[in-house]
Amino acid sequence: MNDVKGLRVIITGASGMVGEGVLFECLRNEAVSSVLVVGRRLCGTTHPKMKEIIHADFTNLAPVENALSGYDACFFCLGISSLGMKEETYRAITYDVTMHMANTLLKMNAAISFCYVSGAGTDTIEKGRLMWARIKGKTENDLAALPFKAAYNFRPGMLIPTAGQHNILKAYKYFSWLVPIMKAVYPKGICSLEALGKAMI
In whole angstroms, what is the distance from residue 78 CA to residue 181 CA? Predict the structure, then answer.
C-alpha cells in the first residue's frame, strides 16, 4: 500500500485526541519502523517500536535535542483550543512552540519532512477577524519558508476517533451522533484519524 518503508517519525501531541489517533496508525503501519513520542506527559500507549520522551518546556529543547536526530519526519499534532484565550497566550503555544520545534528538528535532521495539523478555515493571508485562524495561517506560512525536505499542512474539520483511543475530547462523545449527518451533508468536512495518519505517512 505504501511506497516507502522504514520511516522513523517523531510525534507531538500524542496525549491528545489527534496525536493519539496518528500514533495508533503509525504503530500499526508497516511503512513506519520506529516512533518517538515527545510530550509534556505520558501518552498512555506502549509499543515495541515506540519510544517516549517527557519534556516540560517545548521552548527549550536543548536538553533533549540529541535524541531528536536520525528521523525522517515529524507529525506535529500538538495544539490547543483558542476558546477563552488571549491572543498572546494562544500565539505562544500555537506559533512559538511549533516554530521552535521545527527549527530544532532542522538543526538535528537536514532532510526531515514536517507535517503540521492546522485546521479548517486557517487564514494564510493573516488578515482575517478570527484570531486563531490568523495565527495558524502565520504558522503555516513560516513553516513553508523553512528548508524542510517537504512541509505539509493538514486542515481537518471534524475528526472521527480510532477505536481504542483513550484521549477523546468530551465534545466528541456528546456529538458523535452528528457524524452520519455530516457525512451526508458535508462529506469533505469530516475525516477519520486513521485516514489522517495514513495521509501523513
Answer: 28
